[in-house]
Amino acid sequence: MSYGLLKGKRGIIFGALDENSIAWKVAMKCHEEGAKFTLTNAPIALRMGEINKLASHCGAEVIPADATSVEELEKLVARSTEVLGGKIDFILHSIGMSPNVRKNRPYEDLNYDFYQKTLDISALSFHKVMHVAYKNDAMNEYGSIVALTYIAAQRIFPDYTDMADAKSTLESIARGFGYRFAKKAKVRVNTISQSPTVTTAGKGIAGFNAFIDFAEKLSPLGNATGEDCANYCVSLFSDFTRKVTMQNLYHDGGFSSTGFTEDLMRKLEEGNS
Prior knowledge:
alpha/beta
């Protein structure tokens, strides 16, 4: 069911790769709610994914851009405002990658060149995106910028390794830039701390399926799905959340506030019997 929450709004969506991507689901929901937007990802990711199918469904233009390059982001923002016919109302930053995780390097023995790449792709790119939008006055008043994060920014999840550092930096950037963007143009900046979600990126983390089961049993409402996250993003892009900014918003079925549950107790007792 569509409510027309984003009718007349324009946006840029980073990170849609395939149907498993949260960004893909956000794009579908934004289209359903009446928004126009461009889709973007790194050129290599575009070759690997199926983004043209999404673009065709949503009537969106695909604009390749390396989010770690300010020059390419300048071109992306300029082209997006041209294609969409005006300033931007919302941006989704759904970007994250760790070469150390992909190569199974433990946190205590990171490759530091990889580590810098993790931070650049997964966190500093968020600063660069906002830097370009801010400098070029590309956002409408009460526009909304959202980045996806994870609770490993606050708590230890050993297999998340240097991505946890990147997410912590990402959340700090949201506060630092959120203050400045609000003062300049009343633009909102928030992060969504999402449940573990089955995506192409998530599958690369060791023990991921077991952890999804654990999180499901710890969360009183169960894990939030990618579709649930898309709905939440739409609410933050809409005019109903005009005074919400600089927040890290947990979207995890209650996981972040729950210490233990009966379901987990039963599972442990079964394992010990």
